[in-house]
Amino acid sequence: MAIVIGLRAAWEVGARKVEVQTDSRVAIDLVQAATESGPHYQLVMPVRRLLERAWQVVLKHIYREANAAADFLASKGHSHAVGEHMIQTPTAALNFWLLHDCMVFKRLG
């Protein structure tokens, strides 16, 4: 669902070249698989429909060690109401984790 929400948000703000980074290799494999049925079909199809739009989207696997910002946001999400929340300006704490991820990604990549 996070991929769907992120792609929808990117489309709505006019982004037409998007890189989706996830530490879930399984999510990427499910989206890229050719299957038209199965237990994850209902989750995968909205992503595939979004990918068919007139834009360039790259799905990229990253290591969990380089995805601390996502873990930080997930931990903060427990204190908010259920739903989508857009961050217009990153907080100092989020900027710290984003910088951390960039440094780890550079080292691992």
Automatic annotation (TrEMBL):
Query: Pfam family example for this protein?
Result: RVT_3
Domain RNase H type-1 per the UniProt entry, residue ranges: 1-76
Q: Which InterPro entries match?
A: RNase_H-like, RNase_H-like_dom_plant, RNaseH-like_sf, RNaseH_domain, RNaseH_sf
SUPFAM superfamilies in UniProt: Ribonuclease H-like (SSF53098)
Q: Name one GO molecular function term.
A: nucleic acid binding
Record's protein name: RNase H type-1 domain-containing protein
